[in-house]
């Protein structure tokens, strides 16, 4: 079996009305039931994507940015919860601009594999100042206030 990205497997499984673990059952991507560990098997039922899409308080998103572009400014607030975003640049580079409530503006330069976690209750946006395409994995999560 040709290894596929988790997101592709999730989309295929969703289109077929199946779970990821049902889609790969019986393939070489399925971990053995018994015996010593033989490496990482990211597609089993307890895989990260399975958990993310089944009721945990996270929401993953992939942001794709063309060169010299930026996202809209946004603020995320949910009554009774603190909202956070964890970001990882998976391609290219991007700036995270945060406008704090006290009036200060912070610019965090993120290069490939750069990561940052921040309070998404502050106004923020991402900006790609280079000519190259950029991708950012963003995971939103909340915790009770």
Describe the structure.
The protein has 145 residues and is mainly β. It contains three helices and eight strands; from the N terminus they run H-H-H-E-E-E-E-E-E-E-E. It has helices at residues 6-15, 20-23, 48-52; strands at residues 58-65, 69-70, 81-91, 94-99, 105-110, 115-119, 123-128, 134-144. The strands form two sheets. Strands 1-8-3-6 form a four-stranded antiparallel beta sheet, with no helix packed on it. A hairpin with a 5-residue loop joins strand 4 and strand 5. The longest helix is centred in the N-terminal third of the chain and has 10 residues, at 6-15. It is flat.
Main traits of this protein?
13% helix; 38% strand; mainly beta; 145 residues; 4-stranded antiparallel beta sheet
In brief:
With 145 residues, the chain is mainly beta.
Topology record:
Layout lengths: L5 H10 L4 H4 L24 H5 L5 E8 L3 E2 L10 E11 L2 E6 L5 E6 L4 E5 L3 E6 L5 E11 L1
Antiparallel strand pairs: 1-8, 2-7, 3-6, 3-8, 4-5, 4-7
User: Largest beta sheet, briefly?
Assistant: 4 strands, antiparallel
Structural class: mainly beta
Low-confidence stretches: 34-48
Give the H and E element order: HHHEEEEEEEE
**What is the beta-strand fraction?**
35-45%
End-to-end gap:
45 Å
- For the secondary structure, the number of strands is 8
In which order are the strands of the major sheet placed?
1-8-3-6
Helix proportion: 10-25%
User: What would you report as the Rg, rounded to the nearest angstrom?
Assistant: 18 Å
